[in-house]
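PROTEIN DATA CARD
Card holder: EXORDIUM like 3
Chain length: 345
Origin: Deinandra increscens subsp. villosa
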Amino acid sequence: MRCSSDRHRRSPTPAILTLTLLFLTGLSAAWRPWPNQQNNSTDDLQLGSNKKFEGSSEFVKLKYHMGPVLTENITVHIIWYGTWSGPQKRIIREFINSISAPDHHPTPSVSGWWKTVQLYTDQTGSNVSRTVHLGQEKNDRLLSHGKTLTRLSIQSVIKSAVTAKTKPLPIHPKGGLYLLLTADDVYVQDFCRNVCGFHYFTYPSIVGYALPYAWVGNSAKQCPGVCAYPFAVPDYIPGLTALKSPNGEVGIDGMVSVIGHELAEMASNPLVNAWYAGQDPSFPVEIADLCEGIYGTGGGGSYTGQMLKDGDGATYNMRGIRRRFLVQWVWSRVVNYCTGPNALD
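Structure generated from the sequence above:
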């Protein structure tokens, strides 16, 4: 499979056909299905609802499969697809910049959250890098690939960004992550139904390189009750009250947690052959999947856990350089349960 703009039309190799099939079926993507648990992988059936709880170490068989992790300095290049306001961009930029902020910043901190991700190592024993930089950015306000994107066309958007005639994004195969963010009026395949974001890697047949990337959508207009929970609540749960978002942007504050989810999984499993649970890499249950919907101590099932609330009523669980954020926890390979910087134990 290849996009129509490719100049060379060689027949794809069997390996490329296999990878493309996995990609198109969505099996290797990092799913974010809350609250509609629609993953039907064998792993999900084995772990059941218990995989969402802090004390589920006896149920989780997270393993290292000898693939690379991001041990070199990480640079996140952003593609802003559609129309974004300055304040929206600043919230997301600050979250990424806060990952490597000095430890003396107020706790609990975003950099403290990343320390759990740093616990993951490659086969040489080298840890995921502590350093995460915000790289170059590309604006695609005119929606060069249309207002509706498929999983495969997302790779074409990335190709356009790295091959642009003016200010292309740099090709950075070893430490570069490419983050495609779609505005609230852009429709993406499976968005809102059972996914709020996913990560994978680009096909050399399309982009020219295998580059780890993630897509995350702004759900503010389409499904905030699914992808911006708990700052918005689903209509089918009566009596549930939405929490006040820390930065006054429900869709963007919801995106921040999904971005954190995907960055953690790309760092520990960039080519879908490193850290995950389950026997089949086409159904990976990764370090953030294991803690979906958990933001504090006691979290699991439909309970988010104990979070923090400021005097203005906003709910959060970690601080960045200047702002507050609510970001889901990730699985610790050392203590074998979900943890975060605001843990009470």
